[in-house]
Amino acid sequence: MYKNSLGVFLRSAGMALVLGVVSAMASSCGGNKENNEPEPVKESVEFTQTTVSIPIDGNGTVSLKVTPIDKLADVEVNVADEDVIDLDRTSDSEGYVFTMKAKSLGSTTIVAVLGSSIAKCAVSVDPIAVTGISLNKTSIQLVVGATETLSAKVTPDNATSPSISWDSSDKEVATVDNGVVTAVSAGKATITAASSSFTAECVVEVKTIEAESLTLDVASKLLTVDESFIVNATILPEGTTYKNVEWIVDDPKVIKIEPFDAVESDNLVSVKVIALNAGNAKLTAVIKDIKATCSFSVKSKEIPATDPKIGDYYYSDGTWSDGGLLSINSDGTKAVWATEKPAPVEGKTVIGIVFQTDQSRFSELEQKQGFTHGLVFCTKGAHAPGAQLTKYAMNEGIDCIGNHKRGDSWYKDIYGQLWTATVRNTYPGEQLEQYPAFDWTTTDFVPSAPAKTSGWFVPSIGQLWDCMANLGGVEVAQHLSGLRDYGYDVTYFGNVMLSYKPMDAINAHFAKIPAAQKEELAYSMTRNGQGVCQIMSSTIYDNTDGVCCIFWLGENQEFETSCEWMNQDFICHPVLAF
Questions:
Q1: What is the model's pLDDT at position 262?
Q2: Which of 97, 273, 361, 475 is most buried, by CB atoms within 10 Å?
């Protein structure tokens, strides 16, 4: 039994030995196979920098290492906010080199992905900081009222949106607005320009120009009671800083004065002299210790024996004389004039032509004022010095006057004085400069209106209607007579061809007036190669679109009821009631 057990054992041990050898051989064979093949390389992406900053107008680079390199094409790259940077890439032996171009201030992230590997690079686009500021001048000298513009330069030139603030150390001496320095009064002030924490300065010295001489344009003048006259004082040298002329009247019962300065930028100061009563008076102008005088003799007014009539000359003393009319219908038709037109009274100053005396053609305002003797068309236009044309408005609309489009509403609009006052009240002070015709008509207009009149105003279209009908010739009168009751838009089919030039008919009433006392009507534009005189009124055609009512007097003998944009150039002759 023992023997048999031992045999079994041996057999078992031998089998185990064999199996162990076989297993060892198998293991040895398998190990050799693994040693002959390379182990797999782990995929990865990695930026050389995890944060990058670039200036707003600059570029930057960052590299991405890709492992293994043969997976380069499999790398996905994205920019979180493409409004911040543009991204271009090139490859090299280790991966990608990215070029970033700044587009706007801000921050974003570049993300690279390869398999399960993710790499990120935070990018910020930063402003370029100001490092200094300088001015083109460090000191300037100005006279009171003068201006000079300082230029500030910020460094570096490509600083991001540099803001510059300006200040004056003494605003009573000099002010500054966006670099424009204005001299206010004598003294010194420092102008400072600042950007970020940097500043630059310019010292301003303000001086005055003192008056050295004062002369009046007239030494003596004869006036009639109620007559007005303008005296101009010339102050030298030009640019004199303070033109504060004191005007002294030795007998205020004879004359009174109204000082004004029509154009503040010149070296003239003016005063309106109004004759009150017969007698003699002396006017003295004083600036510093310099004086100039003018003597006035005032005589009593001689009221004409006859009532005023259409076509009469109207004078600066508020009187009138015969203009040659023999007879006329109330609508201006069938006018008969003297063969030889009378001349104005010698020694008197003509300021207008009477164009209406019909009591029904005066507004309620004129009737209340008692100015119902006549309406006068001024012999001169309202406009800037040296010009002949003006505008109703610059580029502004107007909503304080209603619209007038129909023929009957044109004829009934006799409210020029009211419209003029309405514009002045609606747009007071410097605002009135946006309405030049009204500004020049009512602000120191020359010739002055006599006392005891309405003063000059821009005529309404109904008042111009009367002027055209009564002074523009029989054919114009006939045409307008037929439109008095026209209930439709009068600017449609409101034209007529005449046998004469309508502008010449108006100017014929100015023929005997001295040149210095008149401005004849003139063509203000051309149409189809022909001149057109556009005479403006204060009446509004369309207050939404900014269109006013006018008359067209054509060189081609055409007369037209029309309308035009307010910012066009017009002839504007004021009128008054007396």
A1: 63
A2: 273
Give the largest Cα separation in the chain, rounded. 183
Residue 396: pLDDT above 50?
Answer: yes
* Alpha carbons 257 and 114: distance in angstroms, whole number: 96
Q: Which of 215, 232, 211 is nearest to 144 (CA)?
A: 211
Distance CA 390, CA 553 (A): 17
CA distance 59 to 51: 14
Residue-wise DSSP of 433-484 = GGSHHHHHHHSS-SSPPPSSS---BPPPHHHHHHHHHHHS-HHHHHHHHTTT
Q: What would the two tokens of residue 336 be?
A: 């008969």
Tens of pLDDT, residue by residue over 120-132, are 999 999 999 999 9
- Dist CA 420 CA 442 (whole Å): 8
Sign of dihedral through CA atoms 271, 274, 275, 276? negative
Rounding to the nearest 10 degrees, give the CA dihedral for residues 332, 308, 351, 425. -80
Q: Which helix (H) or strand (E) holds 12?
A: helix 2-35
For residues 546 and 397, the answer to whether their CB atoms sit within 8 Å is yes
The pLDDT value given to residue 36: 61
What pLDDT does residue 261 have?
75
- Give, as one character, the DSSP assignment of residue 510: G
In DSSP terms, 222 is beta-bridged to: 297
Reduce the DSSP state of residue 112 to 3 states and report it. Answer: strand
Residue type for 117, please? S
Compute CA 439 distance to the chain's CA centroid, rounded to the nearest angstrom.
16
pTM above 0.85, yes or no: no
Q: At what angle do helices 474-481 and 461-471 cross, to 10 degrees?
A: 140
Q: Are strands 290-299 and 220-224 parallel, antiparallel or unpaired?
A: parallel
3-state secondary structure of 11: helix
- Close Cβ partners of 171 (under 8 Å, ≥ 6 residues apart): 184, 189
pLDDT classification of 11: cutoffs 50, 70, 90: very low
Can you tell me the distance from the alpha carbon of 105 to that of 56, in angstroms, rounded to the nearest whole number? 6
Would the pLDDT of 33 be above 60?
Answer: no
Mean residue pLDDT across the chain: 92
Nearest-angstrom CA–CA distance, 442 and 439: 6
Alpha-carbon span 295 to 36, nearest angstrom: 131
Task: Dig out the tokens for 34 from the structure.
Answer: 């693994």
- C-beta separation of 201 from 135 below 8 A: yes
Q: Report CA-CA distances (Å) from 481 to 133, 288, 291, 330, 333.
A: 74, 61, 58, 10, 8
Strands 147-149 and 152-155, by their bridges, are: unpaired
Q: Which residues contact 265 (CB under 8 A, 6 or more apart)?
A: none
Tell me the pLDDT tens digit for each residue of 230-255: 999 999 998 888 889 999 999 999 99
> What domains lie within the chain, and their CATH numbers?
44-126 (2.60.40.10), 132-207 (2.60.40.1080), 213-299 (2.60.40.1080), 313-577 (no CATH)
Joined tokens for residue 321: 């004389």
Q: How confident is the model at residue 456 (pLDDT cuts 50, 70, 90)?
A: very high
